[in-house]
């Protein structure tokens, strides 16, 4: 228990001569400095709360209002129209020191109330302005006069230098769509998937629901929308994520990958040193709210930043009926896994963040540590990869007291989790097929070498490659992607490495050793670990993953054809799926609703009447295909905008279903709608273009990320536009389904992309292919 003795500030021994007290000055110093850091964080948080609370005004504007009111009073004017005199009548007696003090006190109180009223008015005006979404539906380059006035007003009321959360109080609430509109849109979305008899049956079910039970459920939902900030988000987090009892590995968690063409250093510890330091720099900016509010690209329109609050110091806690998300205000260490052992690594020393070189030094200590794992420790992480109920029972029975609870607390309360992998993973310059094993490793690893419950796990491979695995319940992928891309950018373009590939800087010789965690795992718990590992391993072995870069053209050429790149990709996926399966399927494309307070996602049903008509026509002849393609593209963009502006289908129907369960009433319509399988689930990974210089450093592009298949007989497809000349695709499916295959679907996607471009640009010559050979790694930037 050496690590426990190191953790206390003093020890005492009772002897016949009295009490022998031993003080640890180093421990007391660390406690003092930790307290100072905590208080600094609280003061900064208080200051930012004040600044955010009065936004779009500023705290200094209060002084301006006070001075203005006092100035008008001294000119023998009464700007309050008698209110100041009324205030003076009710002032306590200690204000009667002099008449002038009484006048000043009344004026200050009136000025403060006027200032608060102005802030409230400005905020309400901004909220109404941000509720205007007609601009999204106007044709590109054709802005109406109403929208021009709206843009000017948004500029006026948006304030200056906003903090990360400055717009939270001005964002509108998510509106509840009319029940008849949602039912109508749902019927339209399933039409290409049903024959006439099935569609007629669904039409009758829909009409019955809309005219009877639907109205009652909708009334309760509108009541919730009046009371709650967001009528979807809390139920979505609880019922879609936290109440799921199946493994979150593969089924819920997702992954993100490193640079495609370069590895900045081949030294595992050095890569960890720079990137871990960058993560804590990001967390510092997050805590100080110095990150710029996320906006719709090319506009002033802010997006909700509420999900950013739980990026760090967050863990999913298993329960028998439902899990919970636990967030701690601060954590000064990370939990590290290597070769079956768990370590606690402090990231601060003497009141400061460790330098990249010092972190590399500490990580190397862990890599060189020869100590064996404790009994049952090596595969302990499999509990987080298996079914949730066995993990919840094991946690309660074996980890609720003693050394096991203390060690588990260290993992769960860590800023995030780090896995030091003994395998090597490569990128494109080596062998393009290695991207597949690289992605599989990040998605599930060995099923016990990741802590899938942590908000995210950073994985470092032996050859310097890295990646991450993210837990999905606390936030959506774009939030974690922003932090990840900040880390990649800071690692290479700001911190850098020396000529030998090590981190820059010096090492403080007084750094404490990384603390190895101890465990006392009984045989019964080991059996449970083995059971969870068997479940997780079967799931991992069944996953088929294919990752490829499409370099023949990118969004630049598509835009020149006056087509939305996202609509182009979605129609290519529809064409590829039809060629692969010979039929259409219900297609899920993730859209965001972060235009609204606490918004998360909405579904765009990409398989439409227009897209299916185009695919059928294109498969037979091309005379009408171009016109049908344009119609399908415009329809897709319209659906995407509808989803972004709160007029989607699926979240509304989901919440109506939850209300029906609370009321204990059955709806055949809702039951059938929510049981429809998503055989093609798709998502676009956003790229923070301001963090990377793709023109001058084209090799520094990320591989993007992906997720597991939603349906056992379907595909999961994630894609990312990398600059103007490349797309990256991540495809997943299951080996157990004989009709699907990630590689064969990838080939269909490539063919569909080429065919669609040929349709749009029939006179083009051979497609441009990238021929620049990029190095696998650079040692010095």
Blueprint (SSEs and pairs):
Layout: H1 2-7, E1 10-15, E2 18-23, H2 25-54, H3 60-74, H4 83-89, H5 99-130, H6 145-157, H7 179-190, H8 196-211, H9 213-227, H10 233-242, E3 254-257, H11 268-287, E4 314-317, E5 324-327, E6 333-338, E7 341-346, E8 348-349, E9 352-353, H12 356-368, H13 388-398, H14 402-412, E10 417-420, H15 434-444, E11 456-460, E12 466-470, H16 477-495, E13 515-516, H17 523-542, E14 543-550, H18 555-560, H19 565-581, E15 587-592, E16 601-605, H20 609-620, H21 625-644, H22 650-663, H23 668-674, E17 680-684, E18 705-707, E19 715-721, E20 727-734, H24 742-760
Parallel strand pairs: 6-10, 10-11, 15-17, 17-19
Antiparallel strand pairs: 1-2, 3-12, 3-18, 4-5, 6-7, 7-13, 8-9, 11-12, 14-20, 15-16, 19-20
Please, could you describe this protein's structure?
The chain has 781 residues and is of the alpha+beta class. The chain is 46% helix and 13% strand. It is globular, with a radius of gyration of 29 Å. Mean pLDDT is 89; it is low at 1-10 and 765-781. It holds the Pfam family CPT_N. It is a multi-pass membrane protein.
List keywords for this structure.
781 residues; alpha+beta; eight-stranded mixed β-sheet; six-stranded mixed β-sheet; disordered N terminus
For the biggest sheet, the summary is: 8 strands, mixed
What structural class is derived from the secondary structure elements? alpha+beta
Strand count: 20
Give the uncertain stretches in residue-range form: 1-10, 765-781
Distance between the termini: 44 Å
Which range best describes the helical content: under 10%, 10-25%, 25-40%, 40-55%, 55-70% or over 70%?
40-55%
Shape: globular
């Amino acid at each position: 228990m050496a690590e426990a003795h190191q953790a206390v500030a003093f020890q005492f021994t009772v002897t016949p001569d009295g009490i022998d007290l031993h003080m640890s000055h180093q421990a007391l110093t660390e406690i003092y400095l930790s307290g100072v850091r905590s208080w600094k964080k609280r003061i900064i948080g208080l200051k930012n709360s004040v600044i955010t609370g009065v936004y779009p005004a500023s705290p200094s504007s209060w002084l301006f209002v006070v001075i203005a009111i006092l100035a008008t009073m001294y000119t023998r004017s009464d700007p309050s129209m008698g209110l100041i005199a009324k205030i003076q009548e009710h002032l306590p007696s200690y204000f009667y020191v002099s008449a002038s003090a009484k006048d000043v006190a009344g004026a200050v109180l009136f000025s403060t109330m006027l200032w608060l009223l102005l802030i409230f008015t400005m905020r309400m005006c901004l909220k109404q302005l941000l509720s205007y979404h007609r601009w999204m539906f106007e044709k590109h380059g054709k802005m109406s006069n109403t929208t021009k006035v709206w843009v000017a007003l948004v500029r006026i009321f948006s304030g200056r230098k906003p903090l990360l959360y400055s717009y939270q109080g001005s964002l509108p609430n998510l509106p509840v769509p009319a029940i008849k509109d949602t039912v109508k849109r749902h019927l339209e979305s399933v039409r290409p998937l049903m024959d006439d008899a099935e569609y007629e049956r669904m039409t009758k079910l829909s009409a019955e629901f809309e005219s009877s039970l639907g109205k009652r459920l909708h009334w309760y939902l509108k009541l919730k929308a009046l009371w709650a900030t967001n009528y979807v988000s809390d139920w979505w987090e609880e019922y879609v994520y936290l109440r799921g009892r199946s493994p979150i590995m593969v089924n819920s968690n997702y992954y993100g990958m490193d640079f495609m063409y370069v590895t900045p250093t081949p030294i595992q510890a050095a890569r960890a040193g720079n990137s871990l330091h960058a993560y804590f720099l990001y967390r510092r900016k997050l805590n100080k709210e110095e990150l710029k509010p996320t906006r719709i690209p090319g506009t002033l329109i802010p997006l909700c930043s509420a999900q950013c609050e739980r990026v760090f110091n967050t863990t999913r806690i298993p329960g028998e009926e439902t899990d919970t998300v636990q967030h701690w205000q601060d954590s000064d260490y990370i939990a590290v896994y290597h070769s079956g052992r768990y370590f606690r690594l402090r990231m601060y020393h003497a009141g400061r963040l460790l330098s990249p070189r010092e972190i590399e030094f500490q990580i190397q200590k862990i890599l060189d540590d020869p100590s064996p794992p404790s009994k049952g420790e090596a595969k302990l992480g499999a509990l987080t990869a298996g079914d949730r109920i066995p993990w919840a029972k094991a946690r309660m029975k074996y980890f609720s007291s003693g050394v096991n609870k203390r060690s588990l607390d260290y993992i769960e309360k860590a800023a995030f989790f780090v896995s030091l992998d003994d395998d090597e993973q490569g990128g494109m310059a080596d062998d393009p097929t290695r991207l597949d094993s690289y992605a599989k490793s990040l998605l599930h690893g060995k099923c016990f070498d990741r802590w899938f419950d942590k908000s995210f796990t950073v994985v470092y491979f032996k050859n310097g490659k890295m990646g991450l695995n993210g837990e999905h319940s606390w936030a959506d992928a774009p939030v974690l992607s922003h932090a990840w891309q900040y880390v990649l950018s800071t690692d290479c373009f700001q911190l850098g490495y020396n000529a030998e590939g090590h981190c820059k800087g010096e090492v403080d010789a007084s750094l404490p050793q990384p603390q190895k965690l101890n465990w006392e795992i009984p045989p019964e718990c080991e059996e449970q670990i083995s059971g969870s590992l068997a479940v997780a391993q079967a799931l991992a072995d069944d996953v088929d993953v294919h990752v490829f870069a499409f370099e023949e053209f990118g969004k630049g050429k598509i835009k020149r054809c006056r087509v939305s790149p996202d609509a182009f990709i979605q129609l290519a996926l529809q064409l590829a799926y039809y060629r692969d399966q010979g039929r259409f399927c219900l297609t899920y494309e993730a859209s965001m609703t972060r235009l609204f307070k606490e918004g998360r996602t909405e579904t765009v049903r990409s398989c439409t009447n227009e897209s299916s008509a185009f695919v059928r026509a294109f498969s037979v002849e091309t005379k009408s295909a171009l016109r049908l393609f344009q119609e399908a593209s415009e329809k897709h963009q319209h659906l995407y905008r509808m989803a972004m502006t709160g007029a989607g289908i699926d979240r509304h129907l989901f919440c109506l279903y939850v209300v029906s369960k609370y009321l204990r009433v059955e709806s055949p319509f809702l039951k059938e709608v929510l049981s429809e399988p998503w055989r093609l689930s798709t998502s676009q990974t956003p790229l923070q273009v301001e963090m990377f210089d793709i023109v001058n450093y084209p090799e520094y592009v990320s591989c993007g990320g992906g997720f597991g298949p939603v349906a056992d007989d379907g595909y999961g497809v994630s894609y990312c536009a990398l600059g103007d000349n490349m797309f990256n695709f991540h495809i997943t499916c299951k080996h157990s389904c004989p009709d699907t295959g990630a590689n064969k679907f990838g080939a269909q996607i490539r063919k569909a992309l080429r065919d669609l471009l040929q349709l749009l640009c029939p006179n083009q010559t051979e497609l441009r292919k990238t021929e620049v050979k990029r190095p696998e790694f650079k040692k010095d930037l």
